[in-house]
Amino acid sequence: MVDIGDEAPDFTVPLADGDVASFTLSDNLDEAPIVLAFFPAAFTNTCTTEMCTFRDRLANFEDVGATVYGISVDLPYTLNEFRRQNDLNFGLLSDERRELIDDYGVADAFPPVDMRVAQRAVFVVDGDGRITYRWLGDTPKQEPDYEAVREAAADAAA
Predict the structure, then answer these.
(1) pLDDT tens sequence across 93-129
(2) What CATH number should be reported for the domain holding residue 131?
(3) Which long-range contacts (CB under 8 A, 24 or more apart) does 92-95 make?
(4) Is residue 87 part of a domain?
């Protein structure tokens, strides 16, 4: 699992932003600090609450120059519908191949079918591509401390 101070694993995945484009982390470090918010699955109660809370607090992140992306193993077309239904105003990244959850060490099994999904986790990546903050949920329903994430992003921007 990546930790604070480690180089963030680079990746290229589909970006659901109302359309479907390609997103490469290293090509977007000018948006740093970048908040990567992993969530298990679109359209589930806690995940919807978490992503809507990021939506509602997005101005707080933008005030410190941070860019937020949600990440799940859902297909990009599913993520676009999730964005639309919840008026999400930030991009969602599709880890449909489950490479990011492995590279970042946040793979989890979704009972009862044991499908591999993302553990609820948040990473902040600075402009040099380094992890400056890491949070992992202890339980599937635990949400991050959004103010702590914002403060970490502000520190990474400084």
Answers:
(1) 999 999 999 999 998 876 666 678 888 899 999 999 9
(2) 3.40.30.10
(3) 92/15, 92/16, 92/17, 92/42, 92/51, 93/13, 93/14, 93/15, 93/16, 93/23, 93/36, 93/69, 94/13, 94/14, 94/15, 94/16, 95/13, 95/71
(4) yes
Catalytic annotation, residues:
47
Would you give the DSSP letter of residue 122?
E
Helix-strand-coil split of the chain, %, nearest 5: 35, 30, 40
Domain enclosing residue 80, as ranges: 12-157
Query: Does residue 57 sit within a domain?
Result: yes
For residue 35, is it within any domain?
yes
Please state, as a whole number, how many other Cβ atoms lie within 10 Å of the Cβ of residue 124.
Answer: 28
**pTM: predicted TM-score of the whole model, two decimal places:** 0.93
CB 110 within 8 A of CB 41: yes
- Report the DSSP pairing between strands 20-24 and 34-38: unpaired
C-alpha closest to that of 153 among 139, 133, 128: 133
What is the separation, in whole angstroms, between the first and last Cα of the chain? 26
Structural contact between residues 72 and 100, judged by C-beta atoms closer than 8 angstroms: no
Question: Distance between alpha carbon 132 and the CA centroid of its chain, in Å?
Answer: 14
Query: 48 pLDDT exceeds 90?
Result: no
Task: Count CB neighbours of 128 within 10 A.
Answer: 11
